[in-house]
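INTERNAL AUDIT FORM
Audit reference: QA-55
Scope: verify that the stored structure record matches its stored sequence.
Auditor: D.O.
Record contents follow.
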Amino acid sequence: MSEIASQLTGRAVIVGSGLAGLMAALTLAPQPVVIVTRAGLGRETSSAWAQGGIAAALGADDSAALHLADTLAAGDGLCDPAIAAGIVAEAPDAIAALECAGVHFDRAADGALSLGLEAAHNRRRIVHAQGDGSGAEVIRALVSAVITTPSITVLEGLDARRILTDEEGVTGLACVGASGAVILPTRRIVLATGGIGGLYEATTNPTGNFGQGIMLAARAGAELADMEFVQFHPTALNSRRRPLALVSEAVRGEGAVLLNESGERFMAGVAGAELAPRDVVARAISAELARGGRVFLDGRAALGERFAARFPVIDALCREAGIDASRELIPVCPAVHYHMGGVATDAVGRSSIGGLWVAGEAASTGLHGANRLASNSLLEAAVMGMRAGRDILSMPAAKPPMPEADLFALPEAADPSLVRPIVSRHLGVLRNAGAIHGAVASLLPLAEGDGPGADPAIVALLIAVFASLRAESRGAHARTDFPLKRAEAVRRKMTLADALDIARATASHPLARSA
């Protein structure tokens, strides 16, 4: 039996309380809206952990056209140029909106915004706050704004389990909280649930984030796009901490270099060196580790005693691991950091399901292509959160049908730990047909079951199926059996039903049976 939250009937429901979800809620004010969050408001979000900042062409030597060029280059042929152009053009407005909401960005002595440099950017355009505490400052300010906005109702400790639909689109959201199941009747849902890092052993994301928004949309029948593209941040702090601590690209932007255990600067001969695109740096570090070596980030000469002032969060994380970054080498390794794939959306966040918007990392807008440009993620979250909010405001509110309280039994809580060994082994930085087919064969029974591993397995299976169909190496998707890039760049979309059909055929392949 489920409780029907009839007092909230018809309100737009936002799932997630990171940057995209909070911006959507604030944009919708004063229209009544509900935020559903599994943890506390703004907690367990990748947004709050972001160190680098937000990419925005604000410098005198910069422009939206230059920002777009860098975005398209990093995306390796798979960006949607029109979508990317629109989002980067709105970057200055997004920064202004965040400042209006109370975010305090770092400024130089003359009062101008302080702009940092990160990999694959050809200009200093990273707007940051509190040094490397950008995400925490942004979320702090937005949470404060949400709390003081009377039109926003926050339901904490509520886990979204299923989207209810009819022939017109969404009709409600089924959740589970401490007191049991709750159904929120609505025709308007915004999924802003973050990424998929919790599917992997080595990640810089909250470990509970396994792609819940993708799962919810996929089970509702929405189209997914480019699920194979998982970005591994090259420089996570290699320690026992879980999730792994991030050592921001901005450290390399300030001049830190990568060394192997022999003291060799192995990126020196690569175009862009330490500031090459993330996929290039991640593969180079993986190659060093694969041969049994070790990799370190050396900021001693470039930063020295300035390290703690410029990067206070990273300095504290290093000291937690017993490392003085101003005087010692920082051991690093690649870790899952961002997912370029997700629920396919249009320019305002609409999915293929009526009444379902998706914003932030859970979405695939076409901005990032095959490989996200550093600090474009918070930019996209802010812009698309606002766009989704404005789009909802432009539409008349439709009254949803009242669901039956005993409509169905909600599934038990998901447990991503059941799929982590499979995903980490078979769908890492370097892939091949045998590994991918092995992942499909192992994940399919879980995805088709009804146990705690089913929901995470669906997201992982989608990644594996999309990976099996991309017989090339492009951006963050690297295959040792197809090391070259095809001449034609193709984005791919499909539903969960399509993916399950492909997975069943793949699981019977000899490669899958022998993996």
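Auditor finding: record pair retrieved intact. The chain has a mean pLDDT of 94.
Action required: none
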